[in-house]
Design brief:
The complex is a heterodimer of chains A (194) and B (253). Chain A has 194 residues and is mainly α. Chain A contains ten helices and two strands, in the order H-E-E-H-H-H-H-H-H-H-H-H. The N and C termini of chain B lie far apart (91 Å). Classes of the chains: A mainly alpha (194), B alpha+beta (253). The interface between A and B is medium-sized, with 29 and 25 residues.
C-alpha cells in the first residue's frame, strides 16, 4: 500500500514532496524510512563499531528526530544530505556521550564504489575490504568520515559540505589530508598499493 | 511494511509525536541573525569608542612622563574597548556560522566581512560623534567608568611632570594665567613657547601646557588646544601682539 502511495500517476514522488505529505499524515513518513533505512544503516556501520541492536536503536532515534524536525527541512537541500547530516550528528553525539571514538567496523561495508580520479588517487588499485577497514580504523574520525562520504557513499563535495556543515573548501582540504593520512597509515601497516 | 518502519510509525502514533512547528525554526534562525546583527552593532560601537579613545590620546607625551613609547602604549591602550570589540566580533561570527547556511561560507570570508563591516560602521560612528556620546553616556550612568575626558584631565593634572591643562583666565604680554581643574591658578610664561595645532589664546579657551613648574609658575615649552592630540609641527612663538583678536596662531591659518 505504501509503495502505491509513493506514486502520483506514473511519477514517483520526490523526497521533498513526501516530506510535505508526512507533515499532514505521519503514515507517509514510512516511505522516507523505506528509502533511507538501508543507506543510513550502511553509513552508521561505516562510521562506528556498533552492534546490530545499537544500530537499530540509533536508526529509530534518527528517524524520530528527522520526523520531529521535518519543518526544518530546507527544500533547497537534498533530503538525503539532510538525513545524512542528522545521522552523522547523532552518531557523533552518541559517542561523545559515552566518551569514546567511533571505530570503523564492518569490513563488508568497505567496498569502494565508482572509478573517479579521486578514487584512483586514493587507491592506486582497489584494496580488499578488510585492508581498507584496517586502515580506516586507525584514522582520525574527521578524516575517516570525509573518506566514507566521498568514496563509499559517493557524495559530491557540495553534499559532503551540507552533511558535515563545513564549507566546500574545507571539505576539499579535509579530503586531501585524509588521503595523506590513509596512505601513511597504509605504509605503517605495510599494506601495499601495488 | 518492514519491521523498523512499523516500529517507528507505531512509536510516532503511540507517543503522539508531532513535527516541531515551523514558526519555532523560523524564530530560531531569526534569533541567530538578530544576535549576529546586534553583535555587529555593539562591535561597531566598541570600535568607534576605541577610535575616540585613540584619537584623544596624546601619544607623544611619553617622554614627559619618563616612559618609553612601548611602556606608554601598553598603559594607554583602551583595553575595555579592545576586549569588547573582540568579544562582540567573535559572538557575531559564531552566530553567522550557526545560521542555517552559515557553514557554506569560508570562516575567513565571514571573519574578514565581519571585521570590515564593524570597522566601517565604527568609523562612521566615530565621525558621527557616537563614540563621544556613548563615552559620555557611560560616564554619566556608571560612576566607576572613566571617560576619555576624565582620563585626559588626569593626564593633564601632573604639574610635577610639567603637564597642566585648564582654562585661560587672562592673557598678557608674554604670560597667561591658567586655571587648572582643581581651580588653582598658574602663571604660564610663554616667551619661548611652541604652539601646536589650531590654538587661540583667548580668555576662556581650554589648553594644554607642557613645560616646567616652579611653585605656581610654569615655563611653557609647548601649548596645545585642549581638544585633539596635536602631533604636527607647530610654530615657535617669539613675538607678541596686543588687541582683541587671537593673539597667537599656528601656521596655515
Amino acid at each position: 500500500m505504501l509503495d502505491l502511495m509513493e506514486m502520483d500517476g506514473d511519477k514517483i514522488k520526490t523526497d521533498g514532496e513526501i516530506v510535505i505529505q508526512s507533515l499532514n499524515d505521519s503514515a507517509h513518513f514510512s516511505i522516507l524510512i523505506d528509502r533511507y533505512e538501508e543507506k543510513l544503516t550502511r553509513y552508521i556501520r561505516r562510521l562506528c563499531d556498533c552492534s546490530k541492536e545499537d544500530i537499530e536503536d540509533l536508526l529509530q532515534e534518527i528517524f524520530i528526530k528527522i520526523y520531529k524536525n521535518l519543518n526544518d527541512f530546507d527544500q533547497s537541500l537534498k533530503f538525503s544530505s539532510w538525513a545524512y547530516r542528522i545521522t552523522h550528528n547523532e552518531v557523533i553525539s552518541r559517542f561523545r556521550r559515552i566518551k569514546s571514538h567511533p571505530q570503523g567496523a564492518d569490513i563488508s561495508e568497505y567496498e569502494i564504489k565508482g572509478n573517479s580520479p579521486d578514487t584512483i588517487l586514493l587507491l592506486d588499485q582497489k584494496l580488499d575490504g578488510r585492508k581498507i577497514a584496517e586502515i580506516l580504523k586507525e584514522m582520525d574520525i574527521k578524516y575517516r568520515e570525509v573518506l566514507v562520504l566521498r568514496f563509499f557513499e559517493e557524495k559530491d563535495y557540495a553534499e559532503i559540505s551540507d552533511i558535515l556543515q563545513k564549507p566546500a573548501g574545507t571539505v576539499a582540504t579535509l579530503l586531501n589530508r585524509a588521503k595523506y593520512q590513509f596512505r601513511n597509515i597504509a605504509k605503517q601497516l605495510n599494506i601495499n598499493f601495488k | 511494511m518492514k519491521e523498523l518502519q512499523r516500529k517507528i510509525i507505531d512509536q510516532i502514533k503511540e507517543k503522539e509525536i508531532q513535527p516541531i512547528p515551523k514558526p519555532f525554526f523560523v524564530f530560531k534562525n531569526l534569533t541567530v541573525w538578530v544576535l549576529a546583527i546586534v553583535s555587529i552593532i555593539l562591535g561597531a560601537t566598541s570600535s568607534s569608542l576605541l577610535a575616540y579613545n585613540i584619537a584623544n590620546q596624546d601619544w607623544n607625551i611619553y617622554t614627559h612622563l619618563g616612559e618609553s613609547f612601548w611602556g606608554f602604549l601598553v598603559s594607554a591602550l583602551p583595553y575595555l574597548w579592545i576586549v569588547s570589540l573582540i568579544a562582540f566580533l567573535s559572538f557575531a561570527i559564531f552566530n553567522i556560522e550557526k545560521s542555517k547556511k552559515g557553514y557554506r561560507y569560508s570562516p575567513f570570508l565571514i571573519l574578514f566581512l565581519s571585521i570590515g563591516i564593524t570597522i566601517i560602521l565604527g568609523a562612521v560612528g566615530y565621525f558621527a560623534g557616537i563614540g563621544a556620546k556613548t563615552d559620555n553616556f557611560l560616564g554619566e550612568k556608571f560612576s566607576s567608568y572613566q571617560t576619555v575626558e576624565t582620563q585626559k584631565i588626569q593626564t593633564w593634572s601632573q604639574p610635577d611632570k610639567g603637564l597642566v591643562g585648564g582654562t585661560i583666565k587672562s592673557v598678557r604680554e608674554d604670560e597667561l594665567t591658567l586655571s587648572d581643574f582643581t581651580g588653582k591658578e598658574w602663571t604660564i610664561n610663554i616667551s619661548e613657547t611652541v604652539l601646536k595645532g589650531k590654538i587661540d589664546l583667548y580668555s576662556g579657551e581650554m589648553i594644554k601646557v607642557i613645560g616646567q613648574s616652579f611653585g605656581d609658575q610654569i615655563k611653557a615649552s609647548e601649548l596645545r588646544p585642549w581638544n585633539g592630540n596635536m602631533t604636527r609641527q607647530g610654530q615657535s612663538f617669539n613675538g607678541m601682539q596686543n588687541g582683541n583678536g587671537p593673539m597667537y596662531m599656528n601656521n596655515g591659518r
